[in-house]
Write a structure and sequence with these properties.
The structure is a single chain. The protein is globular, with a radius of gyration of 23 Å. With 435 residues, it is α/β, with parallel strands linked by helices. The strands form 5 sheets. A 6-stranded mixed beta sheet has the order 3-2-1-4-19-18, with helices on both faces. It has a 6-stranded parallel beta sheet with strand order 6-14-7-8-10-9. The model has no long low-confidence stretch (mean pLDDT 96). It has 14 helices and 19 strands. The relative contact order is 0.18. It binds NADP nicotinamide-adenine-dinucleotide phosphate (NAP). NADP nicotinamide-adenine-dinucleotide phosphate (NAP) binds next to helix 6.
């Protein structure tokens, strides 16, 4: 029976679901030996550094990842960077197929004047900051003003706004980064305004996330009821409302109807507000918007402008894949056809399709790519795989080492009444592994 060598680059949800699809595809006629390569010393990608700390249920998918990792045909090579520690070309020579599951971690830019002012941040920097991503622990975040603006009407904007708007003590029992929690507890921000450039009917939020908002105990979430009603009539006039949209509008109406009184923290969702300029003297002080309107289903500017004074802006308007040697990025994604890049090189997840879909979307996506890879496989290569490529003495974090780190994080978390305390320093990881 032939055994094919598969390298998966990136240990996030798309990477694990690809490994799982290969495991499920094994039978008496074909088997796979899977090596997962990850730049960071820890796996799980966005489940660790993207999912909001106050949404722990979403993170339980990591149990599935650990089950996949326990299979005998799976090996983890974390702390190995493709392009630095091993080249993509060498990997492709050693493996029958290489799957790039490297995600999209570069925040998109608005491209408007003032975007580079201090305290105008991308969600791509802010989210990993509060989630203890080792590359972002030093992100400069100033929470001294009373108002923050979040640009974008998607779930990332909502995560970011919620983290800024809730009472930080609500984050005590979560795995939010200690450095972020300390700052959030000193924060002066009491008003957070999410601004979507189109109408409520075009928002990229999903209903379960919207439905969570009225449950916030210490934050008054506000949406103008009239805006939702107007959106409903616009949509009804065009065609039948599809289910997801109906659920979204219903959830927004619930928010509008359940304004909380007597709480000082406010999270507002504004629609039809397109940013055109950030103003300030070195640091952001004001966002200027053009007031949009919907006409015959199209978004047009009304010609009116308004501005919001604020001391922090976070743009959550999507992500692009990071460029690295040996791949071409087009429209923010790795150039591919149905996941095929070229010869034995494939891609999956956000790197393949762009930054859309929830964690589970990567499952079907990866299954499709694996089917395509299997169709294209030829004779298995006789090669040694990644171990022949790494310099001697390179400190790989394998599955066993990761399990030690994982256990250590959970033990420190238990003592502090949290799910875990994420380790961000290599020095600490080294010490744990020497024990
Ligand atoms: P997203 O869902 O694509 O939302 C991006 C938002 O940015 C849209 O409202 C978009 O508006 C807006 N935008 C884009 N360019 C803009 C510009 N130049 N000016 C103003 N606004 C602009 O992206 P995301 O929020 O980053 O989320 C990525 C994916 O992760 C989504 O599939 C999301 O559902 C998922 N996610 C899920 C969860 C969860 O399940 N809890 C949490 C976080 C993320 P237009 O529509 O007008 O372009």
């Amino acid at each position: 029976m032939p055994t094919y060598k598969i390298a998966i680059v990136g240990a996030g949800p798309a990477g694990y679901f690809t490994a799982q699809a290969f495991q499920k595809a094994q039978n008496e006629e074909i088997s796979f030996s899977i090596d997962m390569i990850e730049r960071l010393p820890t796996p799980w990608g966005l489940v660790r550094s993207g999912v909001a700390p106050d949404h722990p249920k979403i993170k339980t998918v990591s149990k599935v990842f650990e089950k996949i990792a326990k299979e005998s045909n799976f090996r983890l090579f974390a702390n190995v960077e493709v392009g630095k520690d091993v080249s993509l070309k060498d990997l492709r020579d050693q493996y029958d197929a290489v799957v790039l599951a490297t995600g999209a971690s570069k925040g998109r830019k608005l491209g408007i004047p003032g975007e580079e002012l201090t305290n105008s941040l991308s969600a791509a920097d802010f989210v990993p900051w509060y989630n203890s991503h080792p590359d972002y622990v030093n992100t400069e975040v100033d929470l001294s003003s009373d108002t923050a603006v979040v640009i974008g009407a998607g779930n990332v904007a909502m995560d970011v706004a919620r983290i800024l708007a809730i009472d930080p003590t609500e984050l005590d029992p979560t795995d939010v980064a200690d450095h972020a929690l300390t700052k959030l507890k000193q924060s002066n921000i009491r008003t957070v305004i999410i601004c979507g450039r189109r109408g409520p009917e075009h928002a990229a939020f999903t209903a379960p996330e919207l439905r969570d908002l009225p449950k916030l105990e210490n934050t008054n979430v506000y949406i103008d009821f009239k805006q939702i009603q107007e959106a409903e009539s616009r949509v009804a006039a065009l065609s039948e409302i599809e289910k997801d949209l109906k659920n979204n509008l219903e959830a927004m109406k619930l928010i509008a109807e359940h304004a909380k009184k007597g709480v000082e923290r406010k999270l507002e969702i504004k629609f039809l507000a397109a940013p055109i300029e950030f103003k300030g003297n070195n640091k952001i002080e004001e966002v200027v918007f053009t007031q949009n309107q919907v006409e015959n289903g199209k978004i047009i500017s009304s010609g009116e402008k308004f501005s919001i004074k604020c001391g922090l802006v976070i743009s959550a308007i999507g992500y692009d894949s990071v460029e690295y040697s040996g791949i071409t990025i087009e429209n923010g994604r790795i150039n591919n056809i149905a996941g095929h890049v070229e010869h034995n090189l494939y891609t999956t997840g956000w790197a393949k399709r762009g930054p859309t879909g929830v964690i589970g979307t990567n499952k079907s996506d990866s299954t499709d790519v694996v089917e395509l890879i299997i169709e294209n496989l030829k004779e298995p290569k006789l090669s040694e795989g990644i171990t022949s490529l790494l310099k001697s003495g390179h400190e790989v974090i394998d599955q066993l080492a990761w399990e030690k780190i994982n256990a250590s994080e959970m033990i420190s978390g238990e003592i502090a009444g949290k799910p875990r305390i994420k380790i961000t320093k290599w020095r600490v990881i080294s010490a744990i592994l020497k024990k």
